[in-house]
Design a protein that fits this description.
Helices cover about 35% and strands about 15% of the residues. The protein is an alpha/beta fold.
Length: about 200
Amino acid sequence: MQAFTTLDAKAAPLPLANIDTDQIIPKQFLKTVERAGLGRGLFYDFRFDEAGNEKADFVLNRPEYRGAGVLVAGDNFGCGSSREHAPWALMDFGIRCVISTSFADIFYNNCFQNGLLPVTLPAEQVQQLMDEARGGNHVVSVDLAAQTVTSPSGAVFAFEIDPTRKDKMLKGLDAIGETLQAAGAIDVFEMKRALAQPWTEEA
C-alpha cells in the first residue's frame, strides 16, 4: 500500500449528501478484482450521459478540477453496500483524500486498508473548503503527521484520527503489510513447531 504523508493537490467540491458506493463505482464495473482501470467508472452516471459523452457541468469534468487529488464531499459519504472497489476507483482516478463531515463506517474502514485518507471536519470547515475550492486557487494541503488540512487561503483545520490507523497510513501498511512485519518471528515459530511436532508437517 502506498504510504500517505503529505499531499498538496487540487480540491474538487462535491456538495452532495449521502453519496453511496453504487454512485461512486456502479455495479457494472465490479466484475474485476484488478484495481487498475477502475477510475474510468468513478462517478460514471454523474460524469457521462447515456451516449457515453462527458457531462461538462460535472465538477470532475471541468478543466479547472482535472487532476484533483482531494475531494470535498457532503455528509455521509460512502454509504450503501460494502464495496472495496469504491476506494480503489477513487485512488485510480487520482484522489488520495476525501474530506467530509461524516463517512459510512464500512467505506471509512476500507479507505484505511487501501491508502485513501478520509478526513472528518466540522460542517463549517467543510463548507469553507468547498467555497474556497470554487475560487481561483484550488490547492489544498493535507499533512497526516500534523493532522491538519490547509485551505487555499491558508486557513488551517485540525482533524482527529485513530493513532494506530495514522501510523499504518504513514508507513503504508495494510493488513498484509502489518503481518509481514512479524515475518521473522513467524518463521522462528514455524521452525520450532516443526522440530517439536514433526508429525504435523506434511510428508
